[in-house]
Amino acid sequence: MDLNLTDEQRLLRESAERFVAESYDADHRRKMANDPLGFSPAMWTQFAELGWLALPIAEEFGGLGGGAVEIGILMDAFGRGLVSEPYIATVVLGAALIERCGSTAQKQAILPKIADGSLKLAFAHSERAARFDLAKVATTAHKTAQGWRLAGSKIAVLDGHAADEIIVSAHIHDHQGPSGRIGLFLVPATTPSLAISDYERLGGGRACNIELSDVQLPEDALLGNGHDALAAIEWAVDRAMAALGAEAVGIMQVLLDTTLEYTKIRKQFGRPLSANQVIRHRLADMAVQVDEARSMALRAALKVDSDPVERARAASGAKAKIGRSARFVGEQSIQLHGGMGVTEELEVGAYFKRLVAFDTLFGGSAHHYGRHARLGRTTVPA
């Protein structure tokens, strides 16, 4: 297997890293942290002009037909700049679910708008009682004469406050009662009886909780033909975890580079910190963790279109390993910066907060070590 980047992938990496380095400095991040929206609409427009929003969308719907590796290259660059735009919510999750589950008419109506930046999506699936079990959905969708009636609650919806439409998962109840199928419904953010309460996420960006109180929807709000969407949800979340892993690697690389530079210039007892052999060992351990995490993120990206068990094991393995590595690198960086590491004067703390947030998204390391082990047992003959 050739793991070298193609010429197009190298150009994507260089252009993304250059754009992020020029556009996302400390002042910009502080401004976005105090902005109610949490990101810059002007930057989102530039993402569209650069083709990043169209990257994973099929060419027939106005996209570029890129894959998970290209998304990973972009997310690595986003991690280096602590980008807060709703790329995961709209492009990695939203567009993927529309392309996987939507009808041809729905794809033609929605995907080109995502590609040109005129439509933002969010995916509302997590619930309080689910504890990261994607199959546990208490929100219900009852079939009515006019269409559908949704009721339930969703939590931790990434960038739901900024979405034009929200993809909501719900158990379908038809005229015979509970069907046992999970459906995906497109809910406009301005729909009556839809209550959104947003909050700031640790490390930048925003998320929200959603209450659906007998939300009335037309019949065509259901994505596709109503077949069980659980497999598609698992695929999309595994894909998102691979992308988030690449973002975490970009963050870790910045922390490693920053800490290495700091230990070269910070002197103690007349010598640079880096002259201390113990400090060198800790820096070496950080570098090893970053390289291991990068390998796991790449493996997860390469496996997104494999069979479900292989894909899920790669995604959970990456999420668990990168989560542990991220916490180690973040803690070492804070400690080696001393008291300065937790002040706003340096951005080390902001990068560490984003890594802590990464470890909690879609389940922490302990959850995914368990999932990885369970999936491994399913592949072993009895």
Can you lay out the helices and strands and say which pair or pack?
Layout: H1 7-23, H2 26-33, H3 41-50, H4 68-81, H5 87-101, H6 104-115, E1 121-124, E2 140-143, E3 147-158, E4 165-174, E5 177-188, E6 194-200, E7 206-218, H7 230-265, E8 267-268, E9 271-272, H8 277-302, H9 308-336, H10 348-360, H11 365-378
Parallel strand pairs: 1-4, 2-4
Antiparallel strand pairs: 2-3, 3-7, 4-5, 6-7, 8-9
Helix pairs in contact: 1-4, 4-7, 4-8, 5-6, 5-7, 7-8, 7-9, 7-10, 8-9, 9-10, 9-11
Describe the structure.
There is one protein chain. This protein is α+β, with helices and mostly antiparallel strands and 382 residues long. The chain is globular, with a radius of gyration of 21 Å. A hairpin with a 3-residue loop joins strand 2 and strand 3 (147-158). Helix content is 51%, strand content 17%. The strands form two sheets. Strands 1, 2, 3, 4, 5, 6 and 7 form a seven-stranded mixed β-sheet that branches. A two-stranded antiparallel sheet has the order 8-9. The model has no long low-confidence stretch (mean pLDDT 92).
